[in-house]
Design a protein that fits this description.
alpha+beta, 2 domains, 6 helices
Amino acid sequence: MVSLRARLLLALVGLLALGLMLGAFGTQNAVESYLLGRLDRQVRDAHPVMEQTLLGGDTDHMPYHHHDADDRAPRFGTAFLVGTYGALYDSAGRRVAETSPGPNGPAAPTRRPAVTQSMLAAAPVRPDLATASLWTVPAEGGGDRFRLLAERFGNGDVLVVAVPFAEMETTLDNVTRIEIIVSAAMLVVLAALAYVIIRLGLRPLTRIEHTAGMIADGDLTQRVTDTDRGTEVGRLGLAFNTMLTEIEASFRAREASERRLRRFVRAVSPGRTVEAVAAAHGGRAEHRPTPGGGATFRLVLPRPDPSSS
């Protein structure tokens, strides 16, 4: 049988663990949402740079092409993640050019998103970069994911810009690791604090237990000191003391009756009848015949005062 202290501690620790898990889950979702929004902004910010790099500023053959404020000069810097990918596909779906920013400028990409023909066919013409829809696609060969934006030009060519999830996933892994460590440490500290609080809260019950043990050993004068009516333990202590008072009074009355009976028995002698001795003690003796020809004897004495010796 599990003790009350253990059950309370297990219940409290379970609730704390559940609360920490829910908090960690909410934090993880909030961080993931923020990082995904930042990743989308990085894709949109990389679009004009990739466009200038791949098209070389020559867009006269694209009558529906719209010039962006950042189209003046290609630039790669810390604003764009290493691994950002850009590619130009012709109207037949063939990749005709690609690039990826590196520490020293444009370089050949080491990872590519898996761009499908259906994705190229669904690319919008002259989309608003601020509101254009982005896709999440796997990398060629697996092992990574990309956030991808596609734009179709008037001649059917499609520009694809993608940023890998690698940095976002690394950040989420770090956040998860920190949450696990912090939550575990907090759970240990809160569990220890809960144990101390529960132990202090149940201390009056321990005192009641010790008092009951002394009463069981024969000391009926013991009483519980925790009698605050404003607490459950205090009300239990009051009820316990009331019960002890009644029990002690019953024991005193029984002891007094036994003493009077012993004095009565000692007072009976060959020269004195039982009736006379009973009358001298304020009582009476009753004889009742039985059907078999015998008789029963009943001695009635007044109820003794428990406080009398």
